[in-house]
Amino acid sequence: MTDLQFISTTTTDGVLEREFTLGDSIHGMLWSPAAPPARSAPLVLLGHGGGRDAKALPMVGRGRHLVAAGFHAVAIDAPGHGERPRTALDDQQIAAMQEAMSTGVPVGPIVVPYNLHLAERAVPEWQATLDALEQLPGIDGPFGYFGLNMGTAIGVPLAAADARVAAAVFGIFWYDGTLAEHARRITVPVEFLLQWDDQHIPRDSGLALFDAFASTEKSLHANAGAHKEVPRFEVESMVRFFDRHLRS
Amino acid sequence: MTDLQFISTTTTDGVLEREFTLGDSIHGMLWSPAAPPARSAPLVLLGHGGGRDAKALPMVGRGRHLVAAGFHAVAIDAPGHGERPRTALDDQQIAAMQEAMSTGVPVGPIVVPYNLHLAERAVPEWQATLDALEQLPGIDGPFGYFGLNMGTAIGVPLAAADARVAAAVFGIFWYDGTLAEHARRITVPVEFLLQWDDQHIPRDSGLALFDAFASTEKSLHANAGAHKEVPRFEVESMVRFFDRHLRS
């Protein structure tokens, strides 16, 4: 894969922020230390949540934060997200989720299979992105992965399929038999976030997904609060986790 | 309480380490910044595990670590521990625990009521210690508490009874109705450790105890591994937790 194109470049507070395309489908953001010559550092993959994209504010914040802590970071738009075209299935599933949300019907039975379907399309795109980025000067493997919600539905199959992912932070997702099969093939260190008072994800479902990982080093961080109330200090914890596992 | 006596004082690597007695029963260790004038800093109470005492190596390590991070730290011997006399009940319970351990019988039904009995004796001793220490120059309230195993059996009733405990790290203990009643009266921030593969404490029992705390800010850290395999990085997490909650 040699068609990586940087389509815009900005530098803010020591962070080099590059928007890129790869082939016809992949669009993403790469955050790197700006100091020349580009410092060699490990790369952390950022998987965004449903309805967001690589340029969403939480991605930009985490990307810059990781660069300040001495990493590169990259995010790519999931299929049907950002400016990527939606399929008829995308439209139908999004409508079904919105309908469930507005009527108070459990949303998990819609989100889980739809996100796993997106993962089948997203995993090869992440792998093509890694193929391209590992050619760049200053980017060290192996890689870390951070993604909650849909970022977990995509990241778990990715980490199960690609040995370049050496440590991963997942969470805020339902137990599912297919997803658990992927989790049982993951042996790298895992940090897993769960919201103790999640109004969408039953507590036992999140605990069962954490339990499925085969990793001998795995940590569950379960915080009091609702689905979207993941505490900000978990970003610091994520940085320290990658410090422990991606520095050689 | 004015009979606080420092019986030995050493200074190592910037840490002033003072062994003290208070009245006839209390014996403990106080770790403080050595730099004169004594820096004013919050105090963290360290509750030791069963069979250990205030001078045990994990206590000394955590005390010095906390001082390096800008805190004072204190540990006192629990009743029947260290050089304190044992009662007939102490001897009987310790023998029963050793018997259970050697025969593979569940040890929880012995440890839990015995440790809660010790807590009834230990809580007033901790409170007397706080009464004395808060008179010392350089020690700021409110206080933090860190204690696992028996340190949780003692610390939970202490934190429920004494509003000077403003943040606490507990864990590695069984659910029990009496202990949970105390936990339901605790509203300060709590970090709670659980070993996912604990051979003595059933997973659901630990999760139920975490669930009992009334705190709106509480975080469960469940790590893969057996009863005694709490990862070392949890000490760092404890320091950051107290940084967030004890600095005004």
Task: Summarize the structure in short.
Two copies of one chain form a homodimer. With 248 residues, chain A is α/β, with parallel strands linked by helices.
Number of domains of chain A: 1
Largest interface: A-B, 21 and 21 residues
CATH class of chain A: Alpha Beta
Oligomer: homodimer
> Low-confidence segments of chain A, ≥5 residues, pLDDT <50?
none
What's the total helix number of chain A? 7
- Helix/strand-derived category of chain A reads alpha/beta
Radius of gyration of chain A: 17 Å
Question: What is the helix/strand order of chain A?
Answer: EEEEHEHHEHEHEHEH
Would you report the number of β strands of chain A? 9
Strand ordering within the main sheet of chain A: 1-2-3-5-4-6-7-8-9
What is the averaged pLDDT score of chain A?
Answer: 95
Keywords:
Rossmann fold, hydrolase (chains A, B), 248 residues, nine-stranded mixed β-sheet, hydrolase activity (chains A, B), homodimer, alpha/beta, AB_hydrolase_fold (chains A, B), globular, Alpha/beta hydrolase (chains A, B), 39% helix
Characterise this structure.
By secondary structure, the first copy, chain A, is of the alpha/beta class. The first copy, chain A, has one domain: Rossmann fold. Chain A is built from seven helices and nine strands. A nine-stranded mixed β-sheet of chain A has the order 1-2-3-5-4-6-7-8-9, with helices on both faces. In chain A, helix 3 packs across helix 4. Chain A is globular. At the A-B interface, helix 6, strand 9 and helix 7 of A face helix 6, strand 9 and helix 7 of B. Strand 9 of chain A pairs antiparallel with strand 9 of chain B, so a sheet runs across the interface. Chains A, B: Keywords: Hydrolase.
